[in-house]
Prior knowledge:
- By secondary structure, the chain is an alpha+beta fold.
- It contains seven helices and 19 strands.
- The chain has a six-stranded antiparallel beta barrel.
- Strand 17 and strand 18 form a beta hairpin.
- The longest helix is centred in the N-terminal third of the chain and has 60 residues.
- The protein starts with a helix and ends in a 7-residue tail after the last helix.
Amino acid sequence: MKKWSIRLILILVLLLLAAGCGGGQARSFTAEDILREEAIQRGDLDITVPASGNVAANDTVALSFEIPGVVAEVTVAMSDAVTKGEVLARLKTADMEHALRRAEIALEQAELSLAMLLEPPSEDALALARWTVQQAAQSLEVARANQEAALAQGGFSIRQAQDFLERAEEAYQSAQDMIEQFNLPEVHGAGAYVAYVEAEGNVGITQVRAELQIQQANSQWLIAYNSYRQAVEDLESLESPAEENQVRQTELQIEQARLNLQQARDSLEQAVLTAPFDGVVAAVNVNPGAPASTGMPAITLIDASSFYVQVTVDEIDIGSVNVGQSVQVKLDAYPDQALDGVVESITTLPSPVMGIIAYPLRVRLTDTRDVDVRDGMTANVVIQTRVVEDVLLVPNWAIRTDAAGFYVYVRVGDGVERADITTGERSDAFTEVLSGLEVGDVVALVTEERGSLLEMRGPPSRGQ
């Protein structure tokens, strides 16, 4: 008996609780309880995914000189707008320009040498070379004849001088014999003695002159011989093709000259900083007349042609996000301005955030609406993943929940009554109503003694 009594009491309590919670039955309020109301309509429901991040320029680059030097000029200042290819700064390049010219000359000389090696000689050049050989041969023959004549003439002159010396010596000896024989004064032999001395000196002079003439003849013959050999070698060089090793050596000289020329051009180009894209100068760290260090940023340039927001989306929502989806962006600096964007890229690898698996994605701003967007600004984005078309929409602030399910308050006359509803998809502002309401119904926000479960839990989950 006692068990049945307890069961009966529990059943009555549950029934009373169900009745007290509404149990699907209407509950009346007065107009004074209404805080807000709105007529519901049919429309398209935008299903969105919220996220937040920071604005970044399309590109930022720190430009630096690749070679050391002294800054000649700086043509821009901070905040200047520049175009692609515009000169921003340059080093002094006088020495580099001289090096470039020397490299150009060296290459031209090497190429000319190779052309001369490979180009066949003309008939005129061959004829001239043959004529030169003939002339050199004739000159050599003349020099040889002169050499022989000098040898013969020198020998003849020396023999004549020696013969005269012998006769003078005999005359002097005869004079000495007569002086001794007849006891004559020495003066009677003076003339013979002088003639003897002159003859003896003439032999030395004649010998020196002969040797000089022979030496000159030998030198002329050697010159003629070398000229002849050179003429023969030049003719043979013209008539014979260039040797493979010589051609290869000249080709290597050309290759080295080209490398030197390219290095000189690169050095000259590296002495000038140009804008790699249209942008705005963010920083200038060099001054004219001061040395420029390699590797240190000289000028920082920002590409402000477009901006993007880097955000992360958790793994629950990433499946509904795709490249090309529309995005609404609001900046903390301009909270009343809604900017348009599009999902540009989604990374494949996750980026855990506080233990939550999330995936970075990049949102590109497509319309800044004349807002002064700047690098680093905080941005809140709402990604439109899909659109549910032509459904009955109820504002999320009107939806409440209890043990019986979801419900709203509908305006009836001067008061409101509870209406249980079945929900479908939802967005941040509206929820799809599958049953329980009709177009034109006015939903109201009223005060209740207990707080709304929706207010504690947030809007109903999707698909409910």
